[in-house]
Structure formats: C-alpha cells, structure tokens
Amino acid sequence: MGVILMKGNEAIGESAIIAGCRHYFGYPITPQNELPAYMAARLPKVGGTFLQAESEVAAINMVYGAAAAGARVMTSSSSPGVSLKMEGISYLAGAELPAVVVNMMRGGPGLGNIAGAQGDYFQAVKGGGHGDYHSIVLAPSTVQELADLTGKAFDLADEYRMVVILLGDGFTGQMSEPITLPKPSGRSFDKSSWSLSGAKGRDPHIIASMRLNPDNALEMLNLKLQAKYRQIEKSETLWESVSVDDAEYLLVGFGLSARICKSAVSVLRKAGVKAGLFRPITLWPFPAGQLAAVSAGKKKVLVVEMNAGQMVQDVRLSVGGAPVDFLGTLGGATPQVDAIVERITGHAG
Amino acid sequence: MSRSTVTGGDAMYVGIFFAGFGGQGIILAGRMVCLAAMGEGKHVSHIPSYGAEMRGGTANCSVVVSDEEIGSPLVPRPDVCVVMNTPSLLKFQPIVKPGGLLIWNESLIHSAPERTDIEILAVRANDIAEAAGSYRSANMVMLGALIKRRPSVASMNAVLAVLNEAVSARHRELNQVNRKALAGGYEAA
Amino acid sequence: MPVDTVQEKVVYERPRSLADVPNHYCPGCGHGIIHKLLAQCIDELGIQESTILVAPVGCSVLAYNYLRVDGCEAAHGRAPAVATGLKRVHPDTTVISYQGDGDLLAIGTAETIHAANRGEKITVIFVNNAIYGMTGGQMAPTSLQAQKTKTSPYGRNPADVGFPIRACELLNTLQAPVFIERCAVSSVKTILKAKRAIMKGLRNQVEGKGYSFIEILSMCPTGWGMEPREAVSWMEAEMVPVFPLGNLRDR
Hints:
The structure holds 3 protein chains of 3 kinds.
Chain A: E1 3-7, H1 8-18, E2 23-26, H2 34-42, E3 49-52, H3 56-68, E4 73-77, H4 79-94, E5 99-105, H5 121-125, E6 136-138, H6 143-160, E7 163-169, H7 170-174, E8 176-180, E9 206-207, H8 217-235, E10 239-242, E11 249-252, H9 255-270, E12 275-280, E13 282-284, H10 288-295, E14 300-305, H11 311-318, E15 324-328, H12 337-345
Parallel strand pairs in A: 2-3, 2-4, 4-5, 5-7, 6-7, 11-12, 11-14, 14-15
Antiparallel strand pairs in A: 1-8, 6-13, 10-12
Chain B: E1 2-4, E2 13-21, H1 26-39, E3 43-48, H2 52-55, E4 58-66, E5 80-83, H3 86-92, E6 101-105, E7 119-123, H4 125-132, H5 138-149, H6 156-166, H7 175-188
Parallel strand pairs in B: 2-5, 5-6, 6-7
Antiparallel strand pairs in B: 2-4, 3-4
Chain C: H1 31-45, E1 51-55, H2 63-66, E2 70-73, H3 79-89, E3 94-100, H4 101-107, H5 109-118, E4 123-128, E5 131-132, E6 138-139, H6 158-161, H7 167-171, E7 179-184, H8 188-206, E8 212-217, H9 221-224, H10 228-242, E9 246-250
Parallel strand pairs in C: 1-2, 1-3, 3-4, 4-8, 7-8
Antiparallel strand pairs in C: 5-6, 7-9
Helix pairs in contact in C: 1-8, 4-5
C-alpha cells in the first residue's frame, strides 16, 4: 500500500485491525472521535463487532467480558472518560485480562478543554484505579509510532495478560502524517487454558479477581502480579535517544513534548550548544536505568511536559548527579521551542 | 533502543498556517499541500483545529513541510500564513515570522495587513475562483499563489496530481474548476 | 443367584451443573433454590458445556463456585456489560447475567436498561430481596415503603428516597426484550413457575431469540431480621402486592 497520509486516531484503528482486533467498545468524547468512527465503519467489514456503549464504564466492562472470552479487544477515550474507566482497568488487572486502552489526553482537571495535554501521566503510570497494579504504558510521538505501537500493545497485553495503555494526546490523534501501515507481528497467543467459551470437555474456567479463600490467596495473587511486573521492568522498556553521546544538556520528554524537544535540540545544535534528547517510549516500565546511564555527567537535565510536572518525578528518581530542571505547559498549551532553548542557554534562541 | 543524531544543518523547513471560515476548504488546502509535498518525497505533518473551535465558524490548520524528519508539528510562528477572511487576518497577522509570507484574500478582507517586516501578497481569491467557475475553489486559488511564492513546498504538477485523491468523491466534479483556480492563483502571485 | 433383586429407580438427583459443595448462603435464603433451578434448566437444555455465568457483586458473587459452568465475576452493576462482551465474542454460548437488586437497579441501572434496549441476546436472572444482603442489610432500590433497614432505620420514606422501583414494568416499556416475567420462590407452586420462566429465558437464548429478563422475588431472613418461615410469609404478604407476579411479555 506504500506511504499514506493518515490521521493519528485512524491509524490506531487500522493498525488494531491489522493486529487482529475484532472487538471495539467505546463512548464518544473529543478529541478521539475519529477512532470509534473508523472502527464503526471498518469492523463490520472484517467480521468484527463495534458497539457504542451507554457509558465509559459500560464500555470498559464490555472490554472485560470480551477479554475474558479470549478476544483481542480495544477501547478508547480521552482523559475524563478514562477516569471513568479506571474501575474496570483495576478489575482487568486483578483478573489478569489482556486489553488495549487508548487515552488521547486532553486538558484537565474536570471537563477541562479539548486541546491535547499530558496531565494523565500519573493516572496511567502510577495506577489510577484501586489496588496494587500496573498497566504497561506506551507513549507514541508520531502517527507512524501510533500505528506501530498499537500492534505492539496487543502483543504485550496478550503476552502478560494485562492492560496496555496507549497514551497519546489530542494533537497527536488529530495530526495527519505519512505512514506505512504495519504488518502483523505474526505472534499468536493460546488463550484456551483460561478463557471462557463454555466448558466443553474440560473443567469450568473462572475469571475473577476476588480472593476470599484462606491461605492468603489475595496475597498470593498480588505476589504473582508483582513478579510479573518485575519481569516486565527487566525486559520491556523502550526509549529513544537523540544526539546524547556528546551532549552537555539533556532534554527529556514523551509524546508530543518530545517532538518539540527534538526541534529544540536541532535549534540548539545550530547555535553550537551540545544538546540531546532522551524520550521514554514506555512510561511504565520507565527506562530508569537507561536514563541514568545517558544522563551521567550532563550539565543539566531539562524535563519538558504538557503538565505541571509528573514524569519529572520519575526522572529525578532515575538521574544520578545532574541537576534536573522542569518546563511545563498547562491547560492544553504546548511548549514552545524558543522557551526550551532559552531555558538551556539562558537567552532566547 | 533507538539512537539517532540531529545535525542542526540547514534543511528546508516551511511552517504554514491556513485560516478562514468553516466551509472555505481550509483543512483541504492543508491536506493538499501535505499530499503534494509527500509525493515529492518530503516530510509533512498536518494538524487541524478541531472540536468546539470548529463549530464557531473559523477553521485553521498547521502544516509543516521539511526535508528532514519533523520535530514539532505545531506552527506557533508560521513562515507562511494564508488567511481567507477578516477575523483570521486580525488574529493571525501578528504570529507570522518576521521575513515570512502573508497571503490574504482581498475579495473578502477589506483592510490590508499593516505589518512591514513581512512579505505580503493580496489575492482576489473569490473573484478568481468565480471566474474559474465557482467561488468554492477560492482555497485552490490561495494554494496556487502559495506554491508560486514558495516553490520549495511543492510543485504545481505535484498539487495537480493529488487533486483526485484529496477531494472527496462528492466534490470531485469541481476538480475541473479547481485546476483552473489553482492556475489562476499561480498567475496572480 | 439371588432370590429377588431390588429395583432402583432414581426419583431425584443433584443436577450435574450444580457443584457438590456446601454453599455460603444463610438459612432460608432464596439463592440456593434459584441456583438449583438454574442448574436443572441448564441440564435439561443440555447446555452445561456452552454456558457462561456472569456473577455480580452481592451475596451471589460466588455463584460461579456453585454452578459447574464457565464463570465470570463482574464489577458491581456491570454484569450486563460484561455479558455483552462475552456474548459478542461467543454468540453460540448461553450467557447468564445473575444479579441482585442493588446491582441491577442502583449502581447498574444504566447497564441494565441499555443491555435490554439493545436486545442483547442474554438471559438476566434478577434476584429481588428488597435489601442489600452482603453488606449487612442496607436499603435497596426495591426496599418497600416503610421498610426498616440499616440505612432507613425509620422506614423507607418515599418523600425522601422515592418508591421501590419495579424492574419488569420499567423494562416492559422497551421494544427489544422478548421475555419479561416476575416469579417468586416462596412455595412449591411459585418455585415450579420460576423454573418454567428460567427455562423459557434460557431457551430463548439457545434459539437466538433475544433478551430475556426473569425477576425472582426471594427471601433474605438475615437482612430482614426474621426467621426463615416468617420471611416467606412476609414476602408473600408485603412484597408480592408491590411486585405482582406474572408474565409481562413472551414473544
């Protein structure tokens, strides 16, 4: 098919279908409406199911049911809607069910606005719902990466039987860029040992997160989850680094703010300032070790986010010696290249 | 996992901002620039205004065309700004980068831009479009003017080549007029 | 060779679909009866190997331990949404959403109404005992006027918290459902009727007909603060007039 110009939200939809997703449940909210619209048009043509749920809460629980039934399933929303889904995400974590949840973040708190923002880092990365759990959080920064990470998200969800959050923002979802649609990964996951399909010729399967029985059953479940999370921290971190080797100044950002940082690196380099960029692609697991190594010996680390300072906390925990500074924009405002340059050089670029 | 370097060389980079009424084909003009530039092997990005903003009657979009991978897709200080109505001129004239280009629709805007540190081009877009066959092709007139003044963005051939792909099927009968309007804008610049 | 042989004739046995384990329900609780009816119907329809039971939050949260079919826990009120997800993936299975009154008519009202309105091809078993049992006897959306509970200690006052909600009548305003019936498990007669309704509700699904809703009035002696026998009488005298038994729809 070659290179096509595609909108971010639609690229997620087509990539999900390529990855074998045939079930989508969602509820309308801007700025991600192109994704459900895309699924509504496409899924019936590939034998799939699109269902507009009565609420975000119902949608995530339909996802839970479809995941329990062994299907590759997805829902999408934007910040206020994802808050509503948090109950279901905790249940998915407790029942160890695989699902992909897309959050194209907008400005908050409350109803906020519909501009792109990054204020849900804490919610996605630190839990959001109740109980000790993690979701794998992927933070794409281009439409191509939205497409590529969608397939990756389904594979990770199935491999670890957990929720994978694709954490984008309104701008990235609305943006069109040339992309090459991904190919299916070819990986397959046998879910027949646990999924629900009717207990034909086998003992019944039960999908549940409640553990009331004795012998510390809930503690055992939690220990198992934590062991899984430690394994993921070891093997699934993703990141990108740009011009870091000789850099004296290191910018750190994710998603859209990382792209803006990339432009700032270019401007700084032109001005003879040795700057580089470290971009976590997995926000959980956070590439702490890699950032520690990359940031060693730098004069300054500047974290740029479209929020009041969320990922910067993980950066501070990761960086050894270098001083960590923060530049944030609020309420759907986007960081300006000039402001980043000025923060590094002390004067406008 | 992924490592790369940014050289900071002098690559071609043009940030373009289109603004006007909803219905003037602002988003389409931006998409056509992207498709045409893509066809010539360039990197592009396109972000429309969306949501509640769209309902208010104004529409705008940001387009970047570059030789290199695009960092920020946002265009807070455009190199080229195309405004098709008065509110857009008032709102966006100040953000054009010094030395940049402002193309304004003289058919609908009755007071000329005042800045002296930028290149200013008046185009009677609606009149030229009417002469080509329909006022609805005014966006194409502006696009023709844009690529004349900034040929590095895309060639006329590249733009003509993407007309059928860019324009939705129900408006495709207008493409004959669109071709004339593109040429009219090109001439007028 | 024996002089005479004893003929054994089985007149009753535990349904295959009902697990042979002690349950956790209180003496006089209706859930045990309803579980058995469900198991009998599943056996008689021969669908044990193609049934998925969605258990709610509430006293019947462990229902999947008692019915020998694939089981799925749902968050409070979300059973119809979970059942929707299951059924849309496996349209050939029989999906049962088993819910109590708080689950179905309070926290899960939206899921209840919309699954019914979509005509989701599932069977909903609604156990109405007019109280929150598991959490210790709080007021339910179906608690009766003047009924005393932990959270209506002076009696349910309609001027303050409204009247009991009638689920069958509410759902009967929708076009999609194919079967709506209210039953009870207070006597042999009503129990047999309830079984017939459950059977119909499940058969509708096996035949791919559509959404079936069976409300079953059930006793909660513990929550009501009564002896089991007294609870049966109270249900018949007080609940049935507010929630009249009978079929509202059978297409």
